[in-house]
Amino acid sequence: MYRWETTRAALAQRVFATIRTESYDQAAATADTLLSAGLTTLEISLTTPFALEAVTTLVREVGDDAVIGAGTVLDEVSARMAIEAGARFLLAPNLDEAVLRTGHRYGIPVFPGIATPTEAVRAMELGADALTLYPATAYSPDWVVDLRAIIPHVALLPIGGITVAAAPDWVAAGAVAVGMGSALTDGDRQTVTKRLTHLLERLADPN
Question: What integer best gives the mean pLDDT of the chain?
Answer without folding.
Answer: 96
